[in-house]
Automatic annotation (TrEMBL):
The chain crosses the membrane at residues 6-28, 53-75, 87-106, 127-146. This is Copper resistance protein D. Keywords: Membrane, Transmembrane, Transmembrane helix.
Length: 151
């Protein structure tokens, strides 16, 4: 059973790094290009669609791997009574918020991009993207905290 626990943990952390890193990179380098109109609508649509799919695939990966890790590592009510369990619940909440923010922002962006209103797409979603990126960093910090061995 230890092999599957290790594999799930590795997949969870790998995907978390890819998804969070992509979210931060998008907010830092790509979205400002969108807000300034320095990227064309076709490229922006392709990039945002990719981010949306990565987010949706991540939802499946995180539910399966995170659910397994929480179920095996925090039995006997530890999820609700232990500080590490509280961090897991906080992480779950933040993940839901980031996923929702990205879905909402991309959902608002794509119709504007389809109409060729590139700067409008960027400016109307800038706050959502920045908050999602900030919370992504917090998620990784919580992941680092949770990487401590369970006692």
């Amino acid at each position: 059973m230890a092999l599957i626990d290790t594999a799930f943990g590795m997949l969870h952390v790998l995907f978390a790094g890819i998804w969070s890193g992509t979210t931060v990179f998008y907010a830092w380098r790509i979205h400002p290009l969108l807000s300034e109109g320095e990227i064309d609508a076709t490229s922006a649509m392709s990039i945002t669609t990719g981010l949306r799919w990565l987010t949706r695939i991540g939802a499946v990966v995180f539910v399966v791997t995170g659910g397994h890790m929480a179920g095996t590592g925090y039995g006997d009510g530890r999820l609700f009574s232990d500080p590490m369990g509280h961090a897991v619940l906080g992480m779950l909440t933040l993940w839901l918020v980031v996923t929702g923010l990205l879905e909402m922002a991309i959902g608002k962006m794509q119709p504007h991009l389809g109409d060729g209103r590139i700067q409008t797409a960027g400016r109307e979603t800038e706050t959502f993207i920045k908050v999602a990126a900030t919370f992504s960093v917090v998620l990784l910090l919580l992941g680092g905290y949770l990487s401590q061995p369970l006692v």
